[in-house]
Design brief:
mainly beta; 1 helix; globular; 4% helix; ten-stranded antiparallel sheet; 196 residues
């Protein structure tokens, strides 16, 4: 399969996200670039690269953020059995047991547990995720629940719930589990397919 080119626009403020997504049987690679005027503060440029195995399990993450004259960097490695290390190879024991990664600024990271879990209508699962806050790139663990509400030919709807703060959103997704719209935050712009 070639690379998919996906664009999302924020629902309220200025911005754009461009995602280049490569999906193969044995791996998934996501390269995203977000330009966004946040509700508070200066505009943000955020780049991420996620390397995953064929089941959409994150194996490595690089995140870079620029805001005014400040650059922030975050590098994470998943080393198996729910364990994580930073870019220098130091264990991040506070994240032990986290199975997925959620970067706050993008709708894409919801796709990873949706694909990995492969839930059927009526199914639900609770997971622990590494949550990356934006703009400070601080990491913490967050408990989330995904439920499959509908699965039709080529599309579906999943309910996302943050079990710590009570946030909920119904996320329509395409055949690859990629979010079409994130209510009140992002909506997808169609681009016409894949590139080689």
């Amino acid at each position: 399969m070639g690379a998919r080119q996906i664009f999302w626009e924020p629902s309220s403020d200025l911005g754009l996200e461009h995602l280049r997504l490569e999906v193969h049987h044995e791996r998934l690679v996501a390269n995203g670039l977000i330009l966004r005027q946040m509700a508070q503060g200066a505009p943000v440029r955020l780049w991420y690269r996620l390397r995953c195995d064929g089941s959409a399990q994150v194996r490595g993450a690089q995140v870079r953020l620029w805001q005014e004259d400040v650059e922030r960097r975050l590098d994470l490695q998943a080393v198996g059995a729910g364990r994580w290390e930073d870019g220098a190879g130091e264990p991040l024991t506070e994240l032990d047991g986290c199975t997925d990664l959620d970067i706050a600024a993008t709708p894409f990271t919801n796709t990873l547990p949706i694909r990995r879990l492969g839930l059927r209508p009526g199914g639900a699962a609770e997971i622990e995720v590494v949550y990356v806050a934006v703009p400070d790139l601080r990491v913490s663990r967050v408990r989330q629940r995904y439920s499959c509400l509908r699965a039709d030919a080529g599309r579906g709807v999943c309910l996302y719930e943050n079990l710590q703060n009570g946030f909920r959103a119904e996320l329509p997704v395409d055949v690859d589990g990629v979010v079409l719209d994130y209510p009140g935050q992002w909506h997808r712009r169609e681009t016409g397919g894949t590139t080689a």
